[in-house]
Amino acid sequence: MFDPAQLAALSAVLRTGSFDRAAQLLHVTQSAVSQRLRQLEEQVGTSLVVRSQPCRATEAGERLFRHAEEVRLLEQGVRRDLGLTSTGVEESGGWPSLRIAVNADSLATWFLPAMAEVGGVLFDLVIDDQDHSADWLKRGEVRAAVSGSAKPVQGCDCRPLGALRYLATASPDFILRWFGDEPVTAGRLAQVPVITFNAKDRLQTRWAEQTLGVPTTGPSHWLPSSHAFVDAAVAGLGWGMNPEKLAEAALADGRLQELVAGKPLDVPLYWHVSRSVVDALRPLTDAVIKAARDALRPLG
User: Fold this and answer.
1) Alpha-carbon distance 236 to 32, whole Å?
2) In the chain, what is the straight-line distance between the N-terminal and C-terminal CA atoms, in Å?
3) pLDDT per residue over 80-127, tens digit each?
């Protein structure tokens, strides 16, 4: 068994990045934090924290930190089920930290309202492509994920959320300059500048294959920002797949146009949550499903 005070010291150091701030969070002295962490390291027989600026976890420290935060989530769930009220940020180290993998476009369009519905937890978000976010669950590095995969990760429950609609958009001047009055063809698209989020982003090629039958795109700008992606298309840097919700204002006032009218790309999304904390995360799961229902299109 691990001492709760020692686990709290480890969590506080890794969450705040320093022994001094950890001591402030726990309302103890810095020497007390150091002593508790040293005792924990002696118990497990290895170093748990790299004493750098900021402090960071060793591999063993990261594993024990995830365990400590999971225990805190489970304790919070038990208190909720028993109707025991919490007094906010408690002396044992504050709210538990919950690490979730989510794609950038979901975060920019609909996921934040779900987070705001849930109190008593600190969010630690990992941003990754929807086709890769479930990998974080497979490695045990997060407890839940918004993913494009309908196949449940081993040891996890999977719930359908809906489809995030994307539109192939560009500025009117860009379309006139590169296509004129000609239709968009695969051959022409292979010559036209495109905007890509990062190396994992396949939305542009998926749209080209769905619409034109060939997964082709031209020379690419790399731009890992959902909102800047829209701005870059408006500025005429290239064409790209923008979430309908983010592009709707620019489409409405004519700053953006669809590359091919009436040819959206709907990307299915699913909520995966580790069964070890499925009950503890029930309020978040309910909030995620509600936010998705309000913002996403029905699957199928």
Assistant:
1) 58
2) 48
3) 666 655 544 444 556 788 889 999 999 999 999 999 999 888 898 999
Structure tokens at 143: 């407890």
Contacts of 271 (CB under 8 A, 6+ apart): 144, 145, 146, 147, 158, 159, 160, 161, 285, 288, 289, 292
**84 residue type, one letter:** L
> Nearest-CA neighbor of 100 among 109, 112, 89, 85?
112
- Is residue 121 within 8 Å of 85, Cβ to Cβ? no
Rounded Cα gap, residues 207 and 7, in angstroms? 48
pTM of structure: 0.81
For 267, the token pair is 């990307």
Task: Judge whether 256 and 233 are in contact, CB under 8 Å.
Answer: yes
Ordered by where they begin, the domains of the chain are 164-267 (3.40.190.10)
pLDDT range class, residue 141, cuts 50, 70, 90: confident
Collapsed DSSP state (helix, strand, coil) of residue 126: strand
Tell me, letter by letter, the H, E, C secondary structure of 257-277.
EECCCCCCEEEEEEEEEEHHH
